[in-house]
Amino acid sequence: MIPVPSARVTDAVVLAAGNGDRFLNGTHHSKLLQPVLGEPLIVRTLTTAAEAGVTRFRVVLGYEADEVRAAVERGLPGGASVGFTHNPEWHLENGVSALAARAFFTDRHFALLMGDHLFEPAVLASLLRADLQPQESMLAVDPRPAAPEIAAEATRVRLSGDRITAIGKDLHPYDALDTGLFVCAPALFGALETARAAGDTTLSGGIRRLAEQGLMRAHEVGNAVWYDIDTIADLESAVALVGEPETA
């Protein structure tokens, strides 16, 4: 593990409850169990986060909860601890899974990660060290031009300086793509509740409300790479770009 400067934030919520219905690998198993770079996708996410400075994980489970939990327990990075929370409404959008962790983060910032995203440790490490106000949250964004097929699937953000002013999949025009790497204040949970009451159970719905209050900052990823794994093709492309063979 490459040493990184001390982080201000060392806790992370990892959303691992969905069933990945676009990940057609010939089985009904969670895509988070799919081997990538020698270990299950969810373990790869945790390992990278630990390299960035996370020492405590709260994993939100849902679909195939027992199997995903067992994979995490077997592959948990050394020196890290983990707790699990079950989201019985895992079939809804990811904002509901984030809300399931509310009771554990009432007084401090935490990283919020997607269990199916691959990323470089340096991106998250810089977020963990960010100097945020008590109510502020931060999202790593990628302003580089993206291939049309990637931009079409990604969540988009609009910026004013380092402030996020709007977020959504259908946003146009937009300035950058949402990488799925956050450091959040507990204020996120109230924003998610407000969004859900209005019929929006997405994580972006809560982030949008924080942005409306001027509480969402952006951090550009620079030249770092990241991958949102929705399909088998996404996984194959990510592995090919990293330059290591996938383990069958």
How would you describe the overall organization of this protein?
The chain is of the alpha/beta class and 248 residues long. The protein has one domain (11-242): Spore Coat Polysaccharide Biosynthesis Protein SpsA, Chain A, CATH 3.90.550.10. Helices cover 30% and strands 26% of the residues. Strands 1, 4, 5, 6, 8, 9, 10, 11 and 12 form a nine-stranded mixed β-sheet that branches. Strands 2-3 form a two-stranded antiparallel ribbon. Strands 7-13 form a two-stranded antiparallel ribbon. Strand 4, helix 2 (65-75) and strand 5 (81-86) form a beta-alpha-beta unit. Helix 1 packs across helix 2 (65-75) and helix 1 packs across helix 4 (121-128). The two termini are 25 Å apart. The model is unreliable at 243-248 (pLDDT under 50).
List the helices and strands and how they pair.
Layout: E1 11-16, E2 35-36, E3 39-40, H1 41-52, E4 56-61, H2 65-75, E5 81-86, H3 94-99, E6 110-114, E7 117-119, H4 121-128, E8 137-142, H5 148-153, E9 156-160, E10 163-168, E11 176-184, H6 187-197, H7 203-212, E12 216-220, E13 226-228, H8 232-242
Helix pairs in contact: 1-2, 1-4, 6-7
Concise account of the structure shown:
The protein has eight helices and 13 strands.
Number of domains: 1
* SS field, number of helical segments: 8
Unreliable segments of 5+ consecutive residues = 243-248
> Structural class of the secondary structure composition?
alpha/beta
Main sheet: strands, sense, barrel: 9 strands, mixed
The CATH class is Alpha Beta
What CATH calls the topology is Spore Coat Polysaccharide Biosynthesis Protein SpsA, Chain A
Tell how many strands the DSSP assignment holds.
Answer: 13
Question: Distance between the terminal alpha carbons, to the nearest Å?
Answer: 25 Å
- CA radius of gyration is 17 Å
The CATH superfamily is identified as: Spore Coat Polysaccharide Biosynthesis Protein SpsA, Chain A
Helix content: 25-40%
Overall average residue pLDDT: 88
Strand residue percentage: 25-35%
What spatial form do the alpha-carbon principal axes imply? globular
- What letter string, H or E per element, gives the SSE order? EEEHEHEHEEHEHEEEHHEEH
